[in-house]
Task: inverse folding
């Protein structure tokens, strides 16, 4: 692979080329440089480096419990890492948790999951695979359903395996501890979830397992069970949790209404990318683009120097990989710039307000009566949903008002004079 210097005006083009490149001839050190940028935690890095440097074709496990029909881009972080392994010629083993989904993964939960029917699981699975299909070549992956073996486990096997696991360790999980402290129950089915996931690894015998940060304890149990069955333990690799578009530190979630859905239109995705605070530019690029860890400092400098251009490049890239076309990304950028340019907005019919001396943006918006509820307006500021359309800068509640056009939420505009 040719070494390419990252430049502000060519980020989308550089990352799109890398996204579509074949990596089968990539040197192990280069591949590890790409992986390190995306890895949150690893058990262990030494084992991972040894496997990659062996130049053997590796098997990479990824488990999917189809507990819901919709996917947002925060769910895609492990998928983009799997894509890297796939481009490098390794084998992806997709485990469809049609059995474990009926238990429900307790990781990161403050309450138990509702039991799903087999029909619900199958329906969700079809939708899930359709949504991740554009980012991972499902045809080249080996797909398994864990009901094939979990439904056949004998009690003798289960008891033998249970003797290798510590109940004390399982109950130390943060999610379980919180529920116990709050007086909530934990079902025996939830206690054995990580064991069931470990049996998946015993059957598949992967070299590496990839998943979100909340899966680390499940992966550790899989390593324990594999050792108990006299197998080499898998290397456990996790990806970080993606923060939501509001920039308030909370993870991306439908519950917080701070997400970008995989099935949203190109226009909606580009617009949401443009609305993120500047401190999320680098994490979002790192999540979705093929960037080396050694390049991250350069990317940070670009984002700090010209955050507006960096966001536009990020939006272009996201649309380009969705549409498999650099031109599609450029087209969406042009539409956005035409719609929200200072010239275009200044000629539109919108309320205008003459600024009073020492007035903050909060005070000016209240006086305009566009938002009558002060608590609602405070919430919009906290969600970083108020911007200067000329610079796309996020405005704060206490900032002194200045002449220009501001966007309030998704649809309101106010011209300050």
Result:
């Amino acid at each position: 692979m040719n070494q390419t210097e990252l430049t502000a005006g060519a980020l989308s083009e550089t990352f799109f080329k890398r996204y579509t490149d074949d990596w089968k001839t990539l040197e192990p050190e280069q591949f590890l440089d790409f992986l390190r940028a995306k890895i949150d935690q690893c058990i262990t890095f030494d084992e991972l480096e040894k496997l990659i440097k062996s130049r053997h074709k590796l098997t990479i496990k990824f488990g999917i419990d189809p507990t819901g029909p919709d996917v947002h881009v925060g769910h895609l972080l492990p998928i983009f890492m799997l894509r890297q392994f796939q481009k490098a010629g390794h084998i992806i083993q997709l485990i469809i948790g049609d059995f474990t989904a009926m238990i429900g993964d307790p990781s990161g939960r403050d309450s138990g999951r509702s039991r799903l029917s087999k029909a619900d699981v199958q329906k969700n699975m079809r939708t899930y695979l359709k949504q991740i299909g554009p980012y991972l070549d499902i045809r080249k992956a080996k797909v398994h359903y864990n009901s094939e073996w979990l439904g056949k486990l004998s009690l003798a096997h289960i008891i033998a395996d249970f003797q290798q696991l510590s109940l004390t360790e399982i109950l130390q999980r943060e999610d379980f501890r919180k529920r116990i402290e709050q007086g909530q129950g934990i079902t025996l089915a939830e206690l054995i979830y990580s064991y069931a996931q470990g049996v998946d690894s015993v059957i598949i015998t992967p070299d590496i397992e990839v998943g979100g940060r909340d899966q680390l304890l499940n992966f550790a149990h899989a390593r324990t069970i594999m050792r108990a069955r006299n197998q080499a333990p898998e290397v456990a690799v996790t990806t970080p949790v993606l923060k939501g578009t509001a920039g308030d530190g909370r993870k991306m979630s439908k519950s917080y209404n701070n997400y970008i859905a995989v099935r949203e239109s190109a226009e909606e995705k580009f617009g949401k990318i443009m609305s993120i605070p500047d401190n999320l530019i680098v994490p979002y690029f790192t999540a979705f683009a093929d960037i080396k860890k050694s390049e991250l400092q350069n990317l940070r400098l670009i984002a700090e120097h010209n955050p507006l251009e960096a966001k536009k490049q990020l939006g272009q890239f996201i649309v380009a990989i969705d549409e498999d076309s650099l031109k599609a990304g450029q087209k969406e950028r042009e539409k956005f710039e035409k719609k929200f340019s200072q010239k275009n907005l200044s000629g539109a019919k919108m309320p205008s307000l003459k600024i009073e001396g020492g007035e903050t943006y909060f005070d000016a918006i209240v006086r305009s009566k566009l938002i009558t509820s002060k608590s609602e307006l405070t919430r919009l500021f906290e969600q970083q949903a108020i911007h200067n359309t000329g610079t796309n800068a996020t405005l704060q509640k206490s900032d002194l008002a200045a002449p220009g056009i501001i966007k309030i939420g998704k649809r309101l505009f106010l011209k300050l004079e």
